[in-house]
Write a structure and sequence with these properties.
8 strands, Rossmann fold, eight-stranded mixed sheet, 232 residues, disordered N terminus, globular, alpha/beta, 34% helix
Length: 232
């Protein structure tokens, strides 16, 4: 694990080694609704170390407002709320109906909204922290800049964003990417969750965030943990 700071001068059109996303939007929604009952087991096997690192960086404090984008089964939602001993306002959004249902079962009193992350139903400068884990890596590369601008929009000045994504160490294709590209698109959402490794830090810089730092965490698969701030 290491932490690397990124220059805000890096351009998104110079991102190397990131393959295109595959699988239809509808297929991905159906897949994640199906995954909801057992998604926690997958997370424990391949995602827990990166999630734990992200939670440490998030460091939610009393009185803060937190948005969890792609809340999933609400496992991270619960941990973020626990960080502030229940004294933070945490809201989750997800577009997959099955995930929203699973989240409501886990946290019956949670504020959960079914919404598209590219148009979250909140006014500008609402949140102190925006969290998203294992979501950007299933978004088509061309849509990522607008998604990051939307997350920046709802952050308060000096607010922070924490992203956890499937990633990789360098530019060479991983075994995951090679199989991902050879798999029929209709199967990609179910076999890969639609996810492929990305390196999002340059895009985060291009979206106007500052103090962008990236940590690489390995647990069977490589993940990146990114923390960044919205300027004052």
């Amino acid at each position: 694990m290491y932490l690397h700071s990124w220059s805000s001068q890096i351009r998104s059109d110079r991102i190397a080694g990131v393959i295109g996303a595959r699988g239809s939007r509808g297929g991905i929604l159906r897949a994640y609704s199906c995954f909801a009952p057992f998604y926690g087991a997958w997370s424990a096997l391949f995602e827990q170390r990166a999630i734990t690192r992200g939670l440490t960086l998030a460091s939610v404090r009393n009185g803060e407002r937190v948005l969890v984008v792609a809340v999933g089964t609400a496992a991270v939602f619960v941990k973020l709320r626990e960080q502030a001993r229940g004294q933070a306002s945490v809201i989750g959004v997800d577009i997959a109906p099955g995930m929203i249902r699973a989240a409501r079962r886990r946290v019956p009193n949670a504020v959960l909204v079914r919404a598209d992350a590219q148009a979250v139903p909140f006014i500008d400068c609402t949140f102190d922290l925006v969290w998203s884990s294992y979501f950007l890596d299933l978004i088509p590369t061309g849509e990522l800049p607008l998604l990051l601008l939307e997350l920046r929009r709802v952050l308060r000045p000096s607010g922070r964003m924490v992203l956890v994504n499937l990633s990789k160490k360098g530019e060479d294709k991983t075994w995951w990417e090679r199989i991902y590209q050879r798999t029929p698109s209709s199967f990609v959402p179910y076999l890969f969750g639609g996810c492929r490794p990305i390196q999002a830090a340059p895009l985060v810089c291009d979206a106007g965030f500052i103090q962008v730092e990236r940590a690489l965490v390995s647990q069977g698969l490589d993940s990146e943990v990114i923390i960044a701030r919205k300027p004052l």
